[in-house]
Design goal:
Strand content: 15-25%
CATH superfamily of the domain at 2-100: Chorismate mutase
Distance between the termini: 72 Å
CATH class of the domain at 2-100: Mainly Alpha
Number of strands: 17
Radius of gyration: 29 Å
Oligomer: single chain
Number of helices: 12
Structural class: alpha/beta
Length: 386
């Protein structure tokens, strides 16, 4: 009886406490809306004066002040986190207000209806028969006016200097991951992504016609292709494996040497190009192995129906800095579908972030997010919209 009575009193006290919390929450909501209304007025003032939305010194001063009003360490940390969120939402409202008023900042990209694929001159790295050539022909058509160079850098230089209109470059493999060198060169060069092409990778063992598998002593291919075909190669442990800069280089060497003790691992396209006989098809472990290629130009253009934006930026080495940047995507209801990081040269333990998200540069939400990122991140760059 006494136990049941105690339970009743406890339940009554809990209900009263919850009612008090509800009352406080109502006041918080009312005060939050008042604060946001004032933030909108601040945005209109900044629009007239040209003052930036993000004022780092002002925010740091505000955090010190509100933390000093608390009475213990737990509340001090909590109030700092709360006000970081409040000020973050305030900034986003101000960015939105500036966008609505037409002050969206310059996005010097020109929307085009289509790429001039018929008249384009396209460069690809490697040799005839490379997977990159196959990706290029799928994107631009088999009759594309093209030429090849030895390295990724040579391809970037070709469009940078104007000897080619577009370059096709591998940026990511579903098994091996990203191509680090391409990410770094997207920052180094003033070139921009305008398209992408995904092709399925099917590695084949090939040799000069008449070669038998038991004749082979040496196999040539790109190191990644050798790795992706490791399970097959484990059945031929006597073969010497030699890495090449490109699978097509390997196929070309085997064709030119006409040595039946040599074989190459490359794609069907390479076998056709160099007249090699395919001895085994699909020797890579993963049957879903695919590579994503990007189409790059030196012009700041984007297709009007483009649906993916790629950007990069740097962040201060501070707690929560990446979280605050990513909140711009959440607030503007933008779907982020990829994030990568690369170390920044000569700055130990600092990183540059690369992000892909759904959207078009003409969309208001995208403009709003990019404006916030440009003000709050370091060295933010738009790498392309495609």
């Amino acid at each position: 009886m006494i136990k049941d009575s105690w339970k009743g009193i406890g339940k009554m006290d809990l209900m009263e406490l919850r009612e008090q919390i509800d009352s406080i929450d109502k006041q918080i909501v009312e005060l939050y809306e008042q604060r946001m209304d004032i933030s909108r007025q601040v945005a209109e003032y900044k629009l007239g004066t040209g003052k930036k939305v993000f004022d780092k010194e002002r925010e740091e001063e505000k955090l010190r002040k509100v933390k000093s009003m608390t009475h213990n360490d737990f509340n001090s940390h909590g109030i700092a986190e709360l006000f970081e969120q409040i000020m973050s939402m305030s900034r986003k409202l101000q960015y939105q207000t500036l966008t609505e008023k037409g002050s969206i900042g310059r996005l010097p990209f020109i929307g085009v209806d289509r790429l001039d694929k018929e008249m384009a001159r396209v460069v690809f790295p490697g040799a005839e028969g490379a997977y990159t050539q196959a990706a290029m022909e799928q994107y631009f058509g088999e009759n594309v006016n093209s030429f090849h160079v030895d390295t990724f850098r040579d391809a970037m230089i070709a469009i940078d200097e104007g000897s080619a209109d577009y370059a096709v470059l591998p940026i990511e493999n579903s098994t091996a991951g990203i191509v680090n060198e391409i990410y770094d060169m997207l920052v180094e060069f003033e070139n921009y992504i305008v398209g992408e092409q995904i092709i399925k990778i099917e590695h084949c063992l090939m040799a000069v016609p008449g070669t038998r598998i038991e004749d082979i002593k040496t196999v040539y291919s790109h190191p990644q292709s050798l790795m992706q075909s490791a399970r097959f190669l484990q059945g031929h442990t006597s073969w010497k494996q030699i890495g090449m800069n490109n699978n097509a280089f390997a196929a070309r060497k085997v064709a030119e040497d006409k040595d039946k003790t040599q074989a190459a691992i490359a794609g069907i396209h390479a076998a056709k190009t160099y007249g090699l006989e395919i001895l085994e098809k699909g020797i890579n472990q993963s049957v879903t192995n695919s590579t994503r290629f990007i189409v790059v130009t030196n012009r700041k253009i984007f297709l009007k129906d483009a649906g993916k934006v790629s950007i990069c930026f740097e962040l201060p080495h501070e707690s929560g800095s990446l979280y605050h940047m990513l909140s711009h995507f959440i607030y503007n209801n933008l779907n982020m579908n990829k994030i990568e990081s690369r170390p920044i040269e000569d700055r130990n333990w600092e990183y540059r972030f690369f992000i892909d998200f759904d959207g078009n540069l003409a969309d208001g939400a995208v403009k709003n997010a990019l404006r916030g990122l440009r003000e709050e991140a370091r060295n933010m760059r738009i790498l392309g919209n495609y």
